[in-house]
Design goal:
Elements: E1 3-4, H1 7-10, H2 15-18, E2 26-29, H3 33-45, E3 49-54, E4 68-72, H4 85-92, H5 96-112, E5 131-135, H6 142-146, H7 152-164, E6 169-173, H8 177-180, E7 196-199, H9 206-211, E8 214-217, H10 221-228, E9 233-235, E10 248-249, H11 262-272, E11 274-277, E12 284-285, H12 287-306
Parallel strand pairs: 1-2, 2-3, 5-6, 5-8, 6-7, 8-9, 9-10
Antiparallel strand pairs: 3-4, 4-11, 11-12
């Protein structure tokens, strides 16, 4: 029986489905205190550990229970200082069938216009003919420190975006938690500078990603989504998808990482580490089912809330 180190995990809907492959593990949240307790307790009890994070196909409604969890028995995907199962699977590479499936999942992701969160309408205003997208994050997010970055990297990222794209507008996307959870980011949503447009309203990122000339990020998951959309990505930290030769990186990659393919990263992120559950009956799902569900439910949700113009 799985042992949880926090009531939050024990109360998760369909936890048995998510941890079906880890029935004797001690479960905790990533690098949070419960995750550290899980590592300690697993060693004490000589049981495997299951370090959990929300999956990258999380939900339709922002406040709904997650459709997926990442389960790592080694480390945490956003912690570049130490090994993780995510890193090991990417390093091992996807075989032929796995790579073909990863390519199909990428196409399905784009066709469904999905993201991690899918509650918001598309950005409604006119976009410039040429722009680069800069991604903000919530202040103090564990993935920033885990990705070997600091607050100064955000200023450096914005300066680079302006200097490297003198003929393009720079669009800064604020994190959705700034609106839904009253958190703050690394950029001031009310500030104004020449050639910079700060999107200070909550919106779905797909329309912004699909037409961007390039995407600049520190460790944001939107950098991974940008890769799914075939966009060039500049990283100012070391997220799980950096250091493999598919992004332009400011930091040296850990010695554990080497050149890999996007299909290797997609296989690890959406298949190998991800566990999915039907939100109604808890049946185990595949990634394809979760993406299809999000695409259909997002369309229905936004039609009810905003009309077809929001899709």
């Amino acid at each position: 029986m799985t042992l949880s180190t926090t009531k939050t995990i024990a109360r998760l809907p369909h936890l048995t489905t998510f941890l079906a492959d880890s029935p004797t593990a001690v479960a905790g949240w990533g690098r949070k205190p419960s995750g550290r307790r899980a590592v300690w307790l697993a060693r004490l009890l000589r049981r495997p550990v299951a370090l959990l994070e929300d999956g990258f196909v999380r939900s339709v409604d922002r406040n709904a229970p997650t459709l997926s969890l990442l389960v790592d028995d080694i480390g945490v995907y956003y912690d570049a200082a130490r090994p993780s199962r995510m890193e090991r699977v990417i390093s091992d590479g996807a075989d032929g069938d796995q790579a073909a499936r990863a390519a199909r999942l990428t196409a399905q992701w784009r066709a469904g216009r999905v993201s991690k969160y899918n509650h918001s309408p598309e950005y409604p205003d006119r976009l410039p003919d040429r722009y680069v997208l800069v991604i903000d994050q919530t202040f103090g997010d564990l993935s920033v420190v885990g990705g070997l970055a600091s607050p100064e990297r955000f200023s450096a990222m914005l300066s680079a975006a302006l200097a490297e794209n003198p003929d393009a507008e720079v669009i800064v996307k604020v994190h959705p938690d700034v609106f839904s959870k009253a958190k703050r980011g690394y950029f001031d949503p009310s500030s104004s500078r020449a050639r910079i447009r700060i999107i200070g309203t909550d919106c779905h990122p797909v329309r912004l990603l699909e037409r961007a000339t390039a995407v600049y990020c520190v460790t944001s998951l939107m950098g991974f989504e940008a890769l799914l959309w075939g966009r060039p990505v500049r990283c100012f930290g070391m997220p799980f998808y950096a250091g493999w030769g598919i992004t332009q990186d400011e930091l040296p990659r850990p010695m554990r990482r080497h050149d890999a393919r996007l299909e290797d990263v997609v296989h690890a992120a959406l298949v190998a580490l991800a566990r999915y559950a039907d939100p109604v009956n808890g049946a185990r799902w595949k990634a394809e089912q979760a993406i299809d569900h999000v695409a259909r439910e997002r369309s229905a949700l936004l039609s009810r809330r905003f009309g077809d113009a929001a899709l």
